[in-house]
Design goal:
Strand order of the largest sheet: 3-4-2-5-1-6-7
CATH superfamily: P-loop containing nucleotide triphosphate hydrolases
Number of strands: 7
Strand content: 5-15%
Radius of gyration: 17 Å
Shape: globular
Number of domains: 1
CATH architecture: 3-Layer(aba) Sandwich
Structural class: alpha/beta
Number of helices: 12
Oligomer: single chain
Distance between the termini: 27 Å
Helix content: 25-40%
Length: about 260
C-alpha cells in the first residue's frame, strides 16, 4: 500500500511546494511511483511543473467538488518521473463550496484512498492556511505530515498554531495523524540564526527533524520559472543534492530499497 504524506505549514514562503515537487521528483528517480496532489488554489506546484494552471479543466477541484473519478484527472510526466493531480484558480471557491457538502473534511481522503494501490508515494501540497482545504489534506495524510520550516525566527511563530490544529484533527477526525518529520529549509550554515532555529525546532519536535536540511539555493529558486524540478534543471547543485539526500532519508526510514534510475 502506497504511503501518503501531506506537506503542510500555514506560513507561506517556507518551501512547501519546493519540497513537494523536488522530494517527489527524487523519489521518482529512485524508482518509486509518485503522485503529487496540488490542493493549493494558487496552483504553484502545477505551474512549477510547466502546466498552465489557467488551462486546467479537469483537476483536483472537479474531483473534490464534483466527486468525479480522480484517475481521470491525473497527468504523468515521464521526464520528471512524476504524476500530478493538478490545481487551478477554480479551487479558490472550494473553501465556501465545501461547507455545504457532506463529509466536507474527508472528501480528499476518500479520493486518495483508492490510489494507494497504484502509487508508492503520494505527496499532498497544501495551501498556506489552516482552512478546509488544508483540513482535507490533514485527514488524507495516511502516513503523516511533513512540515517544512524556514530557518528564520518568524517561521517558528506559527508552529504552535499548527501543532494545536494537528491535535484538534487527532481528537475529532483522525486519531492516528502523525508527524513524519520536519524539514529545515533555506538553511545558511554561515549564520548563528540557522543553527539556533535548528536547535529550537529539535526541542519542539524531538526525534522528528530530518537529518537532511535544505540550503538556500539560487538554482532552487530559478527552477520553477523553467517548469522543472531541480533534479532536471540543475542536478549538480547543492539544492538538488539536498533533496536527493532527503528522498534517500525518507526511503530509508520506511525500509524501502534505494535503486536509482539510470538516465
Amino acid at each position: 500500500m502506497g504511503k501518503v504524506y501531506t506537506i503542510v505549514n500555514q506560513k507561506g514562503g517556507v518551501g512547501k511546494t519546493t519540497t513537494s515537487i523536488n522530494l517527489g521528483a527524487y523519489l521518482g528517480l529512485f524508482q518509486q511511483r509518485v503522485l503529487l496532489v496540488d490542493i493549493d488554489p494558487q496552483a504553484n506546484a502545477t505551474s512549477c511543473l510547466g502546466i498552465d494552471k489557467n488551462a486546467v479543466r479537469n483537476g483536483i477541484y472537479e474531483a473534490l467538488i464534483g466527486e468525479q473519478p480522480v484517475s481521470d484527472h491525473i497527468l504523468h510526466n515521464s521526464r520528471f518521473h512524476l504524476s500530478l493531480l493538478p490545481s487551478s484558480p477554480n479551487l479558490a471557491g472550494a473553501e465556501i463550496e465545501l461547507i455545504d457538502l457532506p463529509e466536507r473534511e474527508t472528501r480528499l481522503r476518500k479520493l486518495i484512498e483508492p490510489l494507494r494501490s497504484r502509487y508508492d508515494y503520494i505527496l499532498i501540497d497544501c495551501p498556506p492556511s489552516l482552512g478546509l482545504l488544508t483540513l482535507n489534506g490533514l485527514t488524507a495524510a495516511f502516513d503523516g505530515v511533513i512540515i517544512p520550516v524556514q530557518c528564520e525566527y518568524l517561521a517558528l511563530e506559527g508552529l504552535g498554531q499548527l501543532t494545536h490544529t494537528l491535535g484538534r484533527v487527532r481528537q475529532s477526525l483522525f486519531p492516528t495523524l502523525d508527524i513524519k518529520g520536519v524539514v529545515l529549509t533555506m538553511f545558511d550554515g554561515r549564520t548563528n540564526l540557522s543553527a539556533d532555529v535548528m536547535g529550537e525546532v529539535q526541542r519542539v519536535f524531538p526525534n522528528r527533524v530530518f537529518n537532511t536540511f535544505i540550503p538556500r539555493s539560487i538554482r532552487l529558486a530559478e527552477a520553477p520559472s523553467f517548469g522543472m524540478p531541480i533534479s532536471v534543471y540543475a542536478p549538480e547543485s547543492n539544492g538538488a543534492k539536498a533533496y536527493r539526500a532527503l528522498a534517500m532519508e525518507l526511503l530509508s526510514s520506511n525500509g524501502d530499497a534505494i535503486h536509482e534510475l539510470q538516465e
